[in-house]
Amino acid sequence: MSKIAGKRLVYFPNIPFILYRGLNLPPNFAAFRVPLNVNKFDVRDYLLHVYNLKTLSVKTNIYQGSLYRNEYGQVRRQAATKRAIVEMEEPFIYPEVPKDLRQWRAGDSLPDGTSAKTLTRYPLYLEKPNMKVVNEELDKLQEASVSKSQQKISRLLRSIH
C-alpha cells in the first residue's frame, strides 16, 4: 500500500525553506529552517510537490530567541526560529566547500568567465534614446498599419458592390 504525502498542491512556493549544514546528520537526513506557521504536513507536501523529494519522517523543533537589552535598557527577545529535520528515502551529500574563494569575490571573474561586478551593479546612468528617431519609426509603423487597414476596407467595399 502506497502512502500519499498530502493533497495540498504547491504551484509557486512563497515559503522560504533554508537548507543548512548545522548538524552532524547522516546522509539520508537534512535540516531546514522554516517559518513558524509551517507544520510537518506542510514540510512534507512542499518537498514532495516542489522538489519531488520523498520523505520518510519529519521532526520539527521551535527555538526561542535569546534575551538581550536594547540601547534604552529594555529587555527584548530575538525572534523564535523553527527547525525541521527530514529523513529522506535517498541520501543527500553536500558538495565540498571550495578551497580557493578568490573567484567569487566582487570584481573577479566567475567560473564561467563573467565578472561578478557587472552582474551585481546597474549602470549609473542609462543612455537617453533619440526621440526623433523613435517617433519616425513609430510613424512608419502607424502608416503601415493604416494603409493595411485601408486596403482591407477597400477590398470589403469592392466585394459588397
Protein topology:
Blueprint: E1 18-20, E2 29-34, H1 40-51, E3 55-63, E4 67-69, E5 75-77, E6 81-88, H2 116-120, H3 131-160
Antiparallel strand pairs: 1-2, 2-6, 3-6, 4-5
Mean pLDDT equals 77
Silhouette: elongated
CATH architecture of the domain at 18-88: 2-Layer Sandwich
Tell me the number of helical segments per DSSP (H or I, 4 or more residues long).
3
So what's the CATH class of the domain at 18-88?
Alpha Beta
What is the gist of this entry?
By secondary structure, the chain is an alpha+beta fold. Helix content is 29%, strand content 20%.
Description:
- GO terms for molecular function: structural constituent of ribosome.
- By secondary structure, the chain is of the alpha+beta class.
- The protein has a domain at 18-88: RRM (RNA recognition motif) domain (Alpha-Beta Plaits).
- Helix content is 29%, strand content 20%.
- It has three helices and six strands, in the order ββαββββαα.
- A four-stranded antiparallel beta sheet has the order 1-2-6-3, covered by helices on one side. Strands 4-5 form a two-stranded antiparallel ribbon.
- Strand 1 and strand 2 (29-34) form a beta hairpin.
- The radius of gyration is 29 Å and the shape is elongated.
Q: Keyphrases for this structure?
A:
161 residues, alpha+beta, Alpha-Beta Plaits, four-stranded antiparallel beta sheet, 3 helices, elongated
